[in-house]
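User: quick one, fold this
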Amino acid sequence: SASASASGSRQGESQGAGDGDGESDEEEMNPSEQLVYSLANLLKVTRSRARRIIEVVHEWVVTNDGLDQWGTKTQGHLKTLCRGIPRHADLRPLLLEDEEGNGGVMEALRQISIREARHLSLTKRQEIALLWGDSDVEGDQSRKPMPSMQLELLQTWWSRALPQRMLDQMDEYFLLTHHMARRGHPEWVVSSLPPGWKEITPHKSVHEGEEPEMMYWNPQTGKLQRQVAEDFKVNAPPPRQAPVNLLDVGSAVNSFRRFDLLVRPVAIDLQPATDAEDTYQADFLDVPIRRRAADDASARCVVVDSEGKLASLVAGSFDVVVLSLVLSNVSDPVRRIEMVARARRCLRSDRGLMFVCELSNVLGGRDPRLDVAMAWERNMEEVGFRCMRFTDAFTENHKTELLCQWVFETAPVRARDLSPLLLPREKAPRKTQQQATSGRRLEAQKKRPSWKDKFVRPGS
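Assistant:
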């Protein structure tokens, strides 16, 4: 009760003080020490300088927007400063431009708003242009916002778990960690069959408790046999030193950045996310791929110009290339296979990996009549790959998503002519059984002699 009466007396005193100061038109702001301390730590300035920055921003808000009774507008601009200064380090000297800080602080805030407006929508850019009175904000469209569908895919559970699954398969293939180096390669990495041989399970019913007899296809004889060639030896490939070079095509957020101990990622995307780090904004189909010079002893994979933009990629410098949900977004089927061919040029010839992921419903689902996934695999192998693993579903923690996933290994190029990667909607419609039967019936009727031909005399 004593504390309640004390708080009530304090409220009465504060109300009385507020009533007495009602004659002043200009608002005075006394920033709390907690706000000053937080701002000084975030901006890496002294407390006196942080206090002056708060006063300058508050005076500007009062001049342009009127009274800021609760300080919400001032805190919003301060949050913009704290978020933008670490991203744009070249604006930090503006905070220390002069002792008064009248022009430097507001100029830094203006530059941050202009640079971050490039990633926003046109309506938001117009609002910022009206606020700062600058036409450059509206006209600069170097980075467009990410499509809503792409944002939804990035937020799904399987999209967040897929990079970890790929990293595990890279570890099994290259033996990057000590744990996998002790265990050795799994069966899918070290093939127990000679080149061209295939393992086939006969489709016949077996009794309970009996396993089906495995058969092997011999490409030399063209027949099935029960045993593999005895003179074939399995040679385990040597491990590779981590981190390995990885090229992630179509990655808006650089998902492999958090695995920097095992991979050295290079991400390329047409529209990178606003907060994406180490992601180059470029079109993979237009980026030049150049051979490494003979006198170049560096291990770099990319060539960057003076402005920090991607100039070219070095051929044969990457260990892994990831094409996740990229090929189906290319409108031209020929350009799709060209993207795969360019990925082959970027990979090392000795044991390079390529991961391809596409939604199953985009490729026709699990309908056996639509062999789109099989046709894609065959056409991609002709470019210079060998399929080592394929799954049509991604499962984790009792959740399943229909997702086609390929793991390819580099191999010699089979064909010079590229076969396009067609989607189900781009294929020519097949004739149904009824249409084919009716067509054959009409052709047979045309060839069959009519009743008039029986009564026509020879020579008449």
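User: anything notable?
Assistant: Residues 2-20 form the longest helix (19 residues).
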